[in-house]
Amino acid sequence: MNRSVLVLGLSALLAVSVASAQKVNLRFSTWAGGEGLTLLQQLAQEYGAQNPNVGVTVEVTPFADYASKVAVQLASGSGPDVGWLAEQSVPTFLKSGSLKDLSALTSDPAFNLADFPISALSLWKQGKGVYGVPFSNSPQVLFYNKDLFKQAGVSTPLQQYAKGGWDYATFRSSAKTIKDKTGAFGARIMRVDTKAWNSGTLGVLWSYGGNAYDNNLKCAVNSPASVRAFQFMYDMTFKDSSVPRPGDQTTFQGGRLGMYIDNVSFSAQLKDAAFKWGVAPLPKGPAGRITQLGQAGYVVFAKSSNPSEAQAFLKFLASPAVMARTAKFFPPPRKSVLTSKAYLGSNPAIPAAELKTALVNQLGSARVFKTSDNFLRANDIFASGIERLYQPGANVGNVLNDICKGVDGL
């Protein structure tokens, strides 16, 4: 009897050991923060509960360093299995062969690829392959501090937009008035880290008729229209003192910044904000009201040791049911989700009418940032040049010429 019990015990132990040995541990990389990160961690736990033989670890890297860090990890053989990738990094990762072809997934009728607009998928296709599935199709919006606008006695961006007067001239005058009346900075156009210089900056460039690259992917930040746009931003920084200089760590969530340009997912970081805030469309420039379409997608990295399991987890994340949940922070490309009443009411911090005006209604004029396949190296030149540009007494045109010489010389 004892021998039988011993045999049964050893068999059970062996079964547990085999099951443990077969468990797959996936690494998921992201730059999410705040409640958006909390949701992703929750989804990873739910997937593990539904699939006991798979565990998912969520790894976070700040956006400014994300692409470079993941590229280094992949090159050293220590990269993640599955994760996020931003639109500007896609050409570089495609050229290096770092992404797995997901055609087997996207051709599955149950996945319903037709639910994604063709324009949303174009960036992720190469030849007959599909190398990523977008989960966020977000025009950048303008966050504004209602309390500072009230203290300064200035109409809010949404009020000025409703009257047809929301352009970059009123953006500048509003920012200066906030600075003069409250002492707080009136606006921040680009993010704190200059490596992420394109966020916010591109909306101004495009609205002035400028660009970072031309149609042949040659550097264009020194075109006449681009120079005018950068001079505008430079003057807000040094003539008006309404925009913080590079190196200044003032953030919108701290309550001492009147306006800030970012994706709607930034709202996840305002959960505990001690001030009232809202969202509005970006201002209009000489070439129109154009905002950056901040597109990001789920990808499986080609060197993953568990490609099948990684693809299955991506399928879970990109499903309509899960995308309806992540839509609270990441405007979904799936048409069935984007056009639903549930989506417009998905973020309790942003009224549905405000979200429709600031985001959904701007999709038609939003642009994706198209980059060259050496952008990881080029971005170092752009970022260092931007730091030199935003210095007292800098010659804007000369610095931009130097940037383009460096970028085109790669």
UniProtKB/TrEMBL annotation:
Domain of life assignment: Bacteria
InterPro entries according to UniProt: Bact_solute-bd_prot1, SBP
Protein name: N-Acetyl-D-glucosamine ABC transport system, sugar-binding protein
Keyword line: Signal
Signal peptide feature range: 1-21
